[in-house]
Amino acid sequence: MAQTLLNDTFLRALLRQPTDYTPIWLMRQAGRYLPEYNATRSRAGSFLGLAKNPDYATEVTLQPLERYPLDAAILFSDILTIPDAMGLGLSFQAGEGPKFAHPVRTEADVARLAVPDIDATLGYVTDAVRAIRRALTDGEGRQRVPLIGFSGSPWTLACYMVEGGGSDDFRTVKSMLYARPDLMERILEVNAQAVAAYLNAQIEAGAQAVMIFDTWGGALADGIYQRFSLAYIARVVAALKREHDGARVPVITFTKGGGLWLDEIANTGVDAVGLDWTVNLGRARERVGDRVALQGNLDPNVLFASPAAIREQARSVLNSYGAHPGHVFNLGHGISQFTPPESVAELVDEVHRHSRALRAGSV
C-alpha cells in the first residue's frame, strides 16, 4: 500500500480541515459518457463482466483520472452486488436496467435471507480495491489520489430486492413496508449487517473513504424515512471501521431528495453528507455548522449547457458554500451517460480555479 498520498485534499475536506481549493469528484465519474469506458465494456462483454473482473474494474476506475485532474477515484462496481451475493439472480437487460430473478416478496423469501460470506461471494470487489490502490501508486510508494469504496443503503437495496428491479412508484416495496413492517425490518436488518461487513472489507482492502448511497430514501414519507432508512444507515455507520493503517476513514452518506432531513442525517455519525441540487449549500452549512462536511451539489444537467454557463453555475455552487473548510464539490446525482466529456473538463477546471481564488480572497 502507498506510504505517501500525493493529493489528500479530498480526505482533508471530508474531515473539515483547511484546503487550498475545493476538491472535486463525480458520482458515476467512470461511466458511459466516456468513449474509453464503452470500449472496455465492449471487451468485457457485459456490465457484470466488467464489474466482476478486477482488471477491467481497475481500468475503468482510472479512466476519468487520465482525462481530468479529479481529486479522488471511486471503485467501479454496482450497488446491487450485495443482493446478487444473496443469490437473488441479478442480471442487466439492455434498455431495462437491473432485474432480479428471485425477488423477495413472501414471508418465506424474507426468512431465507442471510448476510453473505463477503470473502466467498464478493472477493472480486475487494480484489479490485487492492488492484486499484496498486495502480494509483508509483514505484516509490506515492499514491495519486484517495480511493473511495461504496455500497447502497439498506433501504435502497431493499427497494430493488422487493421490486425485482427498478421502479417508478415503489408500490410493491411500500406495500410490504406498510402492511408487514416486521418483514421489512427483517430485510433491513440483514441488509444493514451485510452493508457494514461489505464496507469494512473494502476498508481493509484499501478504500480510504466510503460512501453509502441512499438513492431511494427520498421516496419515503417523513417519519417513515427515519424509521426505515435513516435508522439502518446509522446502524451501518456505527459498525464501520473508522481507522485503518493509522489513518481516519471518512464516511459519506447521500440520500437523494433528503435535504428535508439534513440535520438528522448529520447526526448519524457520518463525516460528510451528500446533497442533491435542490438544497442551498450556504443555508445547509449554517444548519449543520461544523458537525459534518457537505458534498455536492451541481445539477447534472448543467453539463449540457455552454462552457460559460457550466463555469457560471460551478461558481454559484462554490460561492453559496463560501471559503469555509468542509466542502467536496460533486454533482447532485450521477453524471448522465449523454454528458459531453469536454463539459466535465470545463467543470473541473472552474472548480479548482475559482475555489483557489475564493480562499485567497481575490473574488
Automatic annotation (TrEMBL):
One of its GO terms (molecular function) is uroporphyrinogen decarboxylase activity. Belongs to the uroporphyrinogen decarboxylase family. PANTHER family: METHYLTETRAHYDROFOLATE:HOMOCYSTEINE METHYLTRANSFERASE RELATED, UROPORPHYRINOGEN DECARBOXYLASE. The keyword Lyase applies. This is Uroporphyrinogen decarboxylase. Substrate binds at R28, Q29, A30, G31, R32, D78, Y160, T215, H333. The record marks D78 as: Transition state stabilizer. The gene is hemE. The lineage of its organism: Bacteria, Pseudomonadati, Pseudomonadota, Betaproteobacteria, Burkholderiales. Residues 23-32, 148-164 form the Uroporphyrinogen decarboxylase (URO-D) domain. Homodimer. GO terms for biological process: protoporphyrinogen IX biosynthetic process from glutamate. The keyword Glycosyltransferase does not apply. It is found in: Cytoplasm. Pathway: Porphyrin-containing compound metabolism; protoporphyrin-IX biosynthesis; coproporphyrinogen-III from 5-aminolevulinate: step 4/4. InterPro entries: UROD/MetE-like_sf (IPR038071), Uroporphyrinogen_deCO2ase_HemE (IPR006361), Uroporphyrinogen_deCOase (IPR000257). It catalyses: uroporphyrinogen III + 4 H(+) = coproporphyrinogen III + 4 CO2. It holds the Pfam family URO-D. It is an enzyme of class 4 (lyase). One of its GO terms (cellular component) is cytosol. Catalyzes the decarboxylation of four acetate groups of uroporphyrinogen-III to yield coproporphyrinogen-III. NCBIfam families: hemE (TIGR01464). Its main location: cytoplasm.
